[in-house]
DNA sequence: AATAGAACTATTTTT
DNA sequence: TAGTTCTATT
């Protein structure tokens, strides 16, 4: 069924009960004047400047619902772009709630999903096939690795990572290899080599029938520009375009919006199918431009590193003449204390428009601050406070822990596990990035796209079956020379003399498996994939209908035939059991997909998997604490929020300090973090932090000082953790003494820190004036830090060589006391807490939790499987 | 070809 | 430290 059948808004079948009929209008009721204006405004363009927590999702959904109810648009004429798939699903649900089944046929999706949808429909226009593969960053890197190797470009310092990010940046600017070649310095061999890499990369993607992430947007723009008739179809269809998080759009995304909001010129109008009706046209015979609504907050722009251009929002009024601007400043999310802190921090960004969030809700409790001696100590505080909050009646799912970098999860996870607090890490090493999951997925990808070398190459070695690099190269040469798909090349392995007789059987069997699966995936009918009929009696099991096989069946077939799970289970490494479980989990995901979207097919499944965002896994029903980076946290809110690692070098991150505008972006990140909190905000840091094997002194973040003292209640201030009071900052010194009961206990652990002769004063260098003035001392610091690091490493090596362990190492090994039986009354000993008595055991299996009263530290809950405990006889 | 151990190196955020 | 890649061995 076509999405295009509902083009004429006359005779709209629903939404007839207009708000004017008396009584409050449910779509306007409870909105403040600014929000109401944003819902009702009609014009070519509308910019909604929406401060954090100002109800923009509400405004957007109500605006869409209002358009439909007032018969100004069909659902199918609306395109709403959100930042994550989860936000899209939520928006759809809320509009459905407002209108009944009103969201049917509406496009609510991310930029990437919308573009994939368009590209799949139009791929043939420029030499792709609809079943194209979407390369994730790892796939892109794998491809680049080959190219760099082939060109010997590594000797010039090219790596898959650096060339990949450079290509990505260029693509976000809509530049291709030829554009770059036209502007580069001809005399620079590195530049010329880069162009060569870029060219080959483009070429290989095309040969593989694959797009990378950036292509999804860029190629859609390219498609629209090269084919005005195609563009006209979408320009005509989408009469109302709404874009959320507009401050984080990059040039390519901006261009896409521009293309979609162009009027259709008369010469294109002629070609429209079905023909344009008179009422669709303006006086000059054009189809007028779609109306555009964008929502954004330049203070929350945190993706400049990905090409987001803040100018898109700043210059919106110039770009779209006649635009109306509505500012939403009243906050409905957080307490005044939290907002004051947020305002104070962001106020230090001088290059912004003045804006102040306010709330009518009252001050609320103060922000809680804590400084640990190490990240371990910091994590302990977080875990204890979470337990406290939970005891106080807060659900785990109302609590989130934020950090700047994914590597900070380690210490947090360790302590949360020990405290038996259920938690979930969003993002980080995602499920689909696990090696074994990628292995299994590579079969499915290859089945859907037998021309893709990356997935094919991966599946050859998963599991190990004796096909090595040599055999792979011969096969690849053969397929290229003969112009075959990889599957066909494998079936004809007998024609490759270099491959020995033993391997031929293996290769042919694998080729047959893939061919058979591809037929099933295509519904058993003819495909562009495997024209070679296989005289194989086992074929009979495939049904002859055109129905594509369920994804789970395909996956099951692949897993069974390759014996991946069995081979993992057969190994002794306990990690391999977890890997086998991941594959079972993947099978469950596929089954779920088949139930949710019956008949959708393999390509739809692969698309969905490629485009999941970190925040999409957030499950409000899960009853777990959420751990995530502050980037992932954008758009979310929690009753209680912990912002951890608020130290110079981490937040703002060291890497950002040298970049122009880098610190300002980090400050916005801090602002985003703070404004996620509704009721309680905790800000924590550590005075020492272990960076790869080494412990370094950390200084409080400059952002801390930007928060007025009166707003933070320090349980343990940075000043108190100095050791023997070295030079302390004025600002932080001032709150000294409000430490309370924590200081005593914590000070006892001081010996664990590094030698405390180093003063723990907050970072120098203000918010950043001239970048030249800032970068010089910064690089100086980096140099000395590097020297220090080398020296420490040398000492550590010597110490290890001398047989003495390193005193500060935290035991990182994963324990498994799986078989430990405990009962009330048993006495146990714990590595850190000493001896204690078990008062009870709850939970089952690997989730068994022991309740223990320790002689020294009192009651603790421990996960039996993982806690560092042993029974005392 | 597969494995185990040694050496090396990178330390940001992500659709 | 930890993850990866290189090298030597079987």
TrEMBL record:
UvrD-like helicase ATP-binding domain ranges (all copies): 29-335
SUPFAM superfamilies: P-loop containing nucleoside triphosphate hydrolases
Binding site for ATP: 50-57
Entry EC number(s): 5.6.2.4
GO cellular component terms given for this protein: cytosol; DNA helicase complex
UvrD-like helicase C-terminal domain sequence ranges: 336-635
Reaction catalyzed: Couples ATP hydrolysis with the unwinding of duplex DNA by translocating in the 3'-5' direction; ATP + H2O = ADP + phosphate + H(+)
Keywords per UniProt: ATP-binding, DNA-binding, Helicase, Hydrolase, Isomerase, Nucleotide-binding
Family: Belongs to the helicase family. UvrD subfamily.
Protein name, per record: DNA 3'-5' helicase
């Amino acid at each position: 069924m076509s999405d295009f059948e509902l083009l004429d808004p006359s005779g709209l079948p629903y939404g007839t009960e207009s708000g004017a009929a008396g009584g409050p209008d449910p779509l306007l009721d409870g909105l403040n004047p600014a929000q109401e204006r944003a819902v009702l405004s009609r014009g070519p363009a509308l910019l909604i400047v929406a401060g954090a927590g100002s109800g923009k999702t509400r405004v957007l959904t109500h605006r869409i619902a209002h358009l439909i109810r007032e018969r100004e648009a069909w659902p199918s004429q609306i395109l709403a772009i959100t930042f994550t798939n989860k936000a899209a699903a939520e928006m759809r649900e809320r509009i459905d709630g407002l209108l009944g089944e009103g969201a049917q046929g509406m496009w609510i999706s991310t930029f990437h999903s919308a573009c994939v949808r368009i590209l799949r429909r139009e791929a043939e226009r420029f030499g792709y096939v609809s079943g194209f593969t979407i390369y994730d960053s790892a796939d892109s890197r794998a491809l680049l690795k080959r190219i760099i190797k082939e060109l010997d470009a590594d000797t010039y310092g090219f790596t898959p990572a650096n060339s990949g990010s450079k290509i990505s940046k260029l693509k976000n600017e809509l530049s291709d290899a030829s554009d770059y070649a036209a502007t580069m310095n001809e005399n620079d061999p590195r530049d010329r080599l880069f162009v060569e890499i870029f060219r080959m990369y483009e070429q290989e993607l095309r040969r593989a029938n694959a797009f990378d992430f950036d292509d999804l947007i860029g190629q859609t723009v390219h498609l629209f520009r090269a084919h005005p008739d195609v563009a006209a179809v979408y320009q005509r269809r989408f009469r109302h375009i709404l874009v959320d998080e507009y401050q984080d759009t990059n040039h390519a995304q901006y261009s896409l919006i521009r293309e979609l909001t162009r009027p259709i010129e008369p010469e294109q109008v002629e070609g429209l199918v079905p023909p344009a009706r008179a009422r669709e046209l303006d006086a000059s015979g054009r189809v007028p431009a779609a109306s555009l609504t964008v929502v954004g907050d330049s203070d929350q722009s945190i993706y400049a590193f990905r090409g987001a251009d803040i100018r898109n929002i700043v210059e919106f009024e110039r770009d779209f003449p006649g635009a109306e601007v509505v500012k939403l400043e009243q906050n409905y999310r957080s307490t005044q204390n939290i907002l004051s802190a947020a305002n104070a921090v962001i106020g230090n960004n001088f290059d912004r428009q003045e804006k102040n969030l306010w709330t009518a809700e009252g001050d609320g409790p103060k922000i809680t601050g804590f400084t640990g001696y190490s990240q371990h100590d910091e994590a302990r505080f977080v875990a204890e406070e979470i337990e406290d909050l939970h005891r106080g009646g807060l659900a785990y799912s109302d609590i989130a822990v934020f950090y700047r970098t994914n590597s900070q999860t380690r210490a947090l996870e360790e302590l949360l596990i020990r405290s038996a607090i259920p938690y979930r890490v969003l993002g980080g090493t995602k499920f689909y990035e696990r090696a074994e999951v990628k292995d299994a997925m590579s079969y499915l990808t290859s089945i859907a796209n037998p021309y893709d070398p990356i997935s094919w190459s991966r599946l050859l070695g998963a599991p190990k079956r004796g096909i090595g690099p040599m055999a792979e190269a011969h096969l690849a040469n053969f397929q290229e020379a003969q112009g075959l798909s990889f599957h066909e090349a494998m079936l004809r392995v007998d024609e490759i003399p270099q491959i020995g007789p033993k391997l031929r059987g293996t290769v042919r069997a694998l080729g047959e498996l893939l061919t058979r699966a591809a037929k099933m995936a295509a519904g058993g009918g003819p495909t562009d994939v495997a024209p070679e009929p296989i005289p194989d009696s086992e074929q009979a099991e495939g049904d002859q209908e055109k129905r594509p096989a369920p994804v789970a069946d395909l996956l099951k077939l692949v897993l069974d035939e390759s014996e991946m799970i069995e081979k993992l289970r057969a190994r002794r490494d306990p990690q391999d059991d977890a890997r086998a479980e991941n594959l079972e989990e993947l099978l469950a995901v596929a089954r779920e997909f088949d139930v949710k979207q019956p008949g959708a097919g393999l390509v739809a499944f692969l698309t969905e998997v490629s485009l999941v965002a970190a925040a999409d896994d957030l499950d409000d029903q899960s009853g777990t604490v959420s751990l995530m980076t502050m980037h992932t946290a954008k758009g979310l809110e929690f009753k209680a929020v912990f912002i951890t690692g608020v130290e110079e070098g981490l937040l703002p991150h060291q890497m950002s300090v040298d970049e122009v505008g880098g610190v300002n972006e980090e400050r916005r990140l801090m602002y985003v973090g703070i404004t996620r909190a509704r009721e309680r905000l905790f800000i924590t840091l550590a005075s020492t932090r272990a960076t790869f094997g080494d412990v370094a002194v950390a200084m409080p973040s400059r952002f801390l000082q930007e928060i007025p003292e009166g707003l933070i209640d320090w349980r343990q201030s940075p000043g108190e953790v100095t050791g023997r009071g070295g030079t302390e900052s004025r600002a932080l010194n001032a709150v000294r003494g409000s430490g309370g009961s924590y200081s005593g206990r914590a000070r006892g652990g001081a010996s664990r820190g590094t030698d405390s002769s180093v003063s723990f004063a907050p970072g120098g260098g203000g918010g950043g004036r001239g970048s030249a003035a800032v970068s010089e001392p910064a690089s100086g610091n980096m140099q000395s830090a590097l020297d220090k690091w080398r020296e420490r490493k040398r000492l550590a090596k010597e110490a290890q060589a001398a047989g003495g362990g390193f005193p500060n190492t935290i035991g990182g090994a994963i324990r498994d006391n799986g078989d430990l039986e405990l009962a009330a009354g048993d006495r146990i000993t714990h590595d850190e807490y000493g001896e204690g008595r078990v008062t009870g055991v709850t939970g089952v299996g690997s989730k068994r939790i022991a309740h223990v009263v320790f002689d020294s530290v009192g009651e603790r809950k421990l996960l039996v499987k993982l806690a560092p405990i042993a029974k005392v006889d």
